[in-house]
Amino acid sequence: TAGAFAVNVVSVAVPGRVDGEMAAEAKRAMAAKIAAKITDAANDPTEPAGIPRAHWSRGLVSPAGWAFAIWGPIFLGESALAAMAAAPGLTASNPVASGMLASAAPWFAGVCGLQSLWCAAFRPWAKRVQHFWLPAALLSAEAAALGGAHGALIASSASKPMTIATYVCVHLPVAMHFGWITAAAVVSANSFAQVARWAPSTKLSFAFVSVWLAVATAAGVSITTGDPVIALTVAWALSAVAADGGKSDTNEFGDVPLKALAHSAATAAKGLSGIGLLIIAKNVLEVLRS
User: Fold this and answer.
1) Contact 61, 244 (CB under 8 A)
2) What average pLDDT does the segment 82-107 reach?
3) Of 52, 10, 6, the residue nearest 28 (C-alpha)
4) End-to-end CA distance of the chain
5) 26 pLDDT more than 90
6) Residue 150 half-sphere exposure toward CB, CA atoms < 13 A
7) Which residues have CB under 8 Å from 288's CB, separation 6+?
8) Under a CB-based contact definition with an 8 Å cutoff, are residues 262 and 286 in contact?
9) Mean pLDDT confidence for 141-146
10) CB neighbour list of residue 253: distance below 8 Å, 6 or more residues apart
């Protein structure tokens, strides 16, 4: 667990990925628009901080930049998880935490390996359509591995309750990571649809289907496991998709279909938030009754 996480951290830190290119492009576009605003009061300097509107990979499902702030708590939590795994003394008096770490270790190592491979694949060399399916495929595989890790954590803690520290440092970051990568796989798949130059009607249909597939996955996992984190995390991502609006400089779609897609994402986010809050209320009531 600790070794795989270390490899993951190093892989993420290596510059040159496409998301770094996006950040640089967004800054340049913002600077240019702000400079133009000095002489043109009607010019709008707004530019998404996530995927720039002029970027070659921008698909219909693109989150607003603020959504990526979730990586902070995920990495912080998984750093604590890796530290607990690297120093068994930290969990010597907590058999529940030890059991959870042991059961999730193979899955978590797979997650870190797949994320490291994604860091290698999400680079300018993969811009061609014959290569650009790879990042989406790796994210989908990573989501499946996170689902395995999450299931292992749920199963190993079913008989005895977790401490707050174990929940925050072991369960919570994996659950958040699972929800976020599920949504990220949808974003990446829609980026591939853009790069592959699918027909507009096909891209639009795929965007709606993929959003609701993510909703069904998040709702199903949260309801069956009693864990609200998955639903709430995907709700966060879909709220960001709705806020972004899906517009691009190519102006391939009119306002009506983009507004419909944004409304769909917003509705899905509200539904998942409701599911998450209901599960929280149910869990609290069960604790109070016990």
Assistant:
1) no
2) 89
3) 52
4) 34
5) no
6) 27
7) none
8) no
9) 98
10) 60, 200, 204, 246
